[in-house]
UniProtKB/TrEMBL annotation:
Residue positions binding Zn(2+): H17, H30, H32
Molecular function GO terms recorded: 6-carboxytetrahydropterin synthase activity; metal ion binding
InterPro entries hit by this protein: 6-PTP_synth/QueD, 6-PTP_synth/QueD_sf
Protein name: 6-carboxy-5,6,7,8-tetrahydropterin synthase
Catalytic activity: 7,8-dihydroneopterin 3'-triphosphate + H2O = 6-carboxy-5,6,7,8-tetrahydropterin + triphosphate + acetaldehyde + 2 H(+)
EC number: 4.1.2.50
Catalytic residue positions: C26 (proton acceptor), H76 (charge relay system), E137 (charge relay system)
Signal peptide: none
Amino acid sequence: MANNIRITKQFSFETGHALYGYDGKCKNVHGHSYKLSVTVIGKPIADKANVKYGMVIDFGDLKKIVKEEIVDVFDHATVFNKNTPHVELAKELQQRDHNVLLVDYQPTSEMMVLDFASKIKKRLPNHIKLHSLRLQETDSSFAEWFAYDNI
């Protein structure tokens, strides 16, 4: 019986945001060069006739999922919580042809990583499980999501 193996793919994207009601500098519109590490777990494919033989998941297949769900959506967008007065600022920016993303949550790293986990899990093949996500906001600050913390 094959062992479970974890594989990780890393992604980068640039995103702006503002935290409505926050008591520090992050209440202002600003941006980050985010780094997202996506780790999945599964057993390598044992069927020697399968073109993906020996792989848990093809890195290219994982890349396609994360690009479509996260990177292509968030890269060079400004994210605002649509349940706050920031929605007015968002409308103004959209009218000026800016890429604005309205979400249902405060766009902190913590809440973004929860959103990302939900989106990625829905797209993974049945034999692959999302193990963890790490969203790095700055060189020294990141949020992590682990499946075993959320059972």
